[in-house]
Design goal:
Length: about 290
């Protein structure tokens, strides 16, 4: 029988990762870091690892309108016109002006301030038209990949209020890490499924200021017991709240790995023995009173 240590005994290995040191053919959205051989390893039978995300910091340099969320199209008869909103940060009045300037041959756009919606007016003489958001649902108030028909001379109010705030948060995923306990999400399809998300970061600061998570109080919000016995490299993936690509700038990440010893059967038997002994001692004292 191998002697076992209590669960409080552990070794800690801290990893400080900067995305700017990725390889030239990689992006901040998806890259790997190599770990010195044997540094992150534990005994396959007697030990296990805990992974803690202690710090994650990046600059809020996201444009609200990006190449992943700016596409829509307008159709009538056999004609299909594809449009892309300009990448950057626009307010509703600038957006409304751009739509009228670039799509005025098909329809007129009027921003309703009270409802925060757009009124679409068909400008094509004696022709029904169809407008469909491909990825621009937040900015024009229409559900992605749903076709909206507007008859000749008629108008339609956008189904949803506009949202020009852009992405809401970013997700950090470590697909090489096998977590001991279930982690699931429904961010992409609406169906709960296995997830490799280990941390999230809200985009809730002014442009070009720091967004950060720092585990200053030693909490376990982003702490995971993992099944990996050896880690030679880590793949880091960053997506938005819909698990879509997002144009991520450089970021810094601190990950801590703890090596814990498993408790043996003898350890638990001794704990039970001490508990039973304490019960009998208590009962014995009670009888002597």
């Amino acid at each position: 029988m191998v002697a076992q240590l209590g669960s409080a005994d552990k070794n800690k290995i801290n990893l400080y990762i900067s995305s700017k040191n990725k390889k030239t053919n990689e992006s901040n959205n998806d890259f790997r870091v190599e770990i010195p051989s044997g540094l992150l390893s534990c005994h396959p039978e007697n030990e296990y690892m805990i992974m803690n995300i202690n710090s994650w910091i990046m600059i809020n340099n996201f444009y609200n309108i990006q190449s992943i969320n700016n596409k829509f199209q307008i159709k009538y008869e056999q004609i299909t016109a594809n449009f892309e909103l300009p990448i950057g940060n626009m307010n509703v009045l600038e957006l409304n002006n751009w739509l009228n300037t670039n799509c005025g041959a098909f329809m007129t756009f009027e921003y309703n301030k009270n409802l925060n919606k757009i009124l679409f007016k068909n400008n094509v003489l004696n022709k029904d038209i169809i407008i469909k958001s491909i990825t621009a649902n937040d900015f024009i108030g229409l559900i992605n990949n749903k076709e909206y028909s507007i008859t000749a001379g008629d108008s339609m109010l956008s189904e949803n209020p506009l949202w020009l705030g852009g992405d809401e948060f970013v997700c950090l995923m470590l697909p090489d890490i096998k977590q001991s306990y279930p982690c699931i999400d429904n961010l992409k399809s609406g169906v709960m499924k296995d997830s490799s998300i280990v941390a999230t970061l809200a985009i809730d600061t002014p442009p070009f200021s720091f967004m950060k998570y720092e585990n200053q109080d030693g909490g376990d919000s982003f702490s995971y017991r993992i099944e990996n016995k050896m880690i030679d490299n880590l793949r880091l993936i960053v997506k938005n709240q819909n698990l879509e690509d997002i144009q991520v700038g450089d970021y810094k990440l601190e990950i801590q790995f703890e090596i814990h010893s498993k408790n043996s059967i003898i350890y638990y038997l001794k704990k039970i023995e001490r508990l039973v002994s304490n019960i009998f001692q208590y009962l014995g004292r009670k009888e002597n009173l």
